[in-house]
Each structure stands twice: as C-alpha cells, then as structure tokens.
C-alpha cells in the first residue's frame, strides 16, 4: 500500500541502528569495500562475509548487478538482516537515475520478503560512487514514497551534518503520490 511507510532521518552510523534490516551500499563483488560496506563488515563480523561468499558461489557468480538487492544475516550488528544493494557509479554523461531508484525499490521488495517493519538506508552512491547529494536525496525519497511496501519505517541514516541537512530539505518539499 502506498503511503504506508513513514520516512525518518537521523544523523549517525548505520551500523548502530536497531532496525529489522540495514541496507548496505555494497559493490558488485559482494566481498567488501570501503565506506558503509567496510563499516558493516567490520562491525558485523565474518558471518556476513561468509554469507556473501556463498551468494557469489551460487546465485551471483558474476557479482550482484547494480540496482539489485539481496539479503544476508546481520552477524553481530543490532539488526536482523543486511540487504546488500549495488548503487550505480555517478556519470554526468549518462542518466543512471533509474538504477539508483531500483536500489531503493528492490531493497524494499527484499525487506517485504523478510517481513521487516523497520529499514535503515544509507545515501546510496553518494560516497565512493560520487552521486551529488541533493539529486541522490531526491531519488531516494521520491522512490520510497512511490514504492508500495509493508515496511512501517524507512530511516535514512546520514553520516554527516551536511548530508542530513540536504535530506531534511528534500523531505520537506517532497510530495507524496496518492
Ligand atoms: P557508494 O559506493 O554507494 O557511494 P559509500 O559507502 O562510499 O557508498 O557512501 C555512501 C554514503 O554513506 C556516503 O554519503 C558516506 O558518507 C556514507 N557513509 C559512510 N559510512 C557510513 C556509515 N557508517 N553510516 C552511514 N553512512 C555512512
């Protein structure tokens, strides 16, 4: 049902969120990286990497394509599951917005499969993948608003004050469909 999901914002570290599922801004290899990915694997411990290795050996032998999402255990994190999604690398020449929107849609679809009521998202693609924050915030918020899901709370976890302010402004002006 559209309009069911409440969007909240916090400034902080996604690995500390007590939610049903945290979303990882992973890379296609699923085998770890920097930014959110590094923090999740550091705090979550080896169980998550083990689960990712199994996924690479079975369903995703060529890696997880950008825009898709898959769940694993959350290991030692205070969450039940980690949903790994791969954001697109920003390009000024090519519009990859739909792939970024797909990360949010697919993560919510997986969250529904997990029956997650609370989901924490980072600002996907805005770190190593260089997506401009305001545009990324627009895509993130409008996609969550437009995606029917049973998730009760989507919490955007912004690492620094600047990102938090951008999301706050975009959320204040975003119109909910329906
Ligand atoms: P991507 O490769 O998709 O760009 P990154 O992990 O490099 O992913 O960055 C995504 C966003 O997450 C950036 O805005 C970055 O500042 C932020 N970030 C980095 N570490 C954390 C963390 N522990 N919790 C929440 N956000 C984080």
From TrEMBL:
The keyword DNA damage does not apply. Keywords: Hydrolase. PROSITE patterns: MACRO. It is an enzyme of class 3 (hydrolase). The keyword Cell division does not apply. SMART domains: A1pp. Residues 1-175 form the Macro domain. Its EC number is 3.1.1.106. It comes from the Bacteria. Gene3D superfamilies: Leucine Aminopeptidase, subunit E, domain 1. InterPro entries: Macro_dom, Macro_dom-like. Pfam families: Macro (PF01661). GO terms for molecular function: O-acetyl-ADP-ribose deacetylase activity. This is O-acetyl-ADP-ribose deacetylase.
């Amino acid at each position: 049902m559209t309009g069911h999901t409440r969007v909240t914002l916090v400034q902080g570290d996604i690995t500390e969120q007590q939610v049903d599922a945290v979303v990882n801004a992973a890379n296609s290899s699923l085998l770890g990286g920097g930014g959110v990915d590094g923090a999740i694997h550091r705090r979550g411990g080896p169980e998550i990497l083990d689960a990712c290795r199994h996924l690479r050996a079975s369903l995703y032998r060529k890696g997880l394509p950008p825009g898709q999402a898959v769940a694993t255990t959350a290991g030692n994190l205070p969450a039940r599951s980690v949903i790994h999604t791969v954001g697109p690398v920003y390009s000024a020449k090519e519009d990859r917005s739909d792939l970024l929107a797909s990360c949010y849609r697919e993560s919510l679809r997986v969250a529904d499969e997990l029956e997650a009521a609370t989901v924490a998202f980072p600002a996907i693609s805005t770190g190593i993948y260089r997506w401009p924050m305001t545009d990324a915030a627009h895509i993130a918020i409008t996609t969550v608003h437009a995606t029917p899901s049973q998730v009760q709370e989507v919490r955007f976890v912004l690492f620094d004050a600047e990102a938090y302010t951008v999301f706050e402004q975009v959320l204040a002006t975003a119109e909910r469909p329906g």
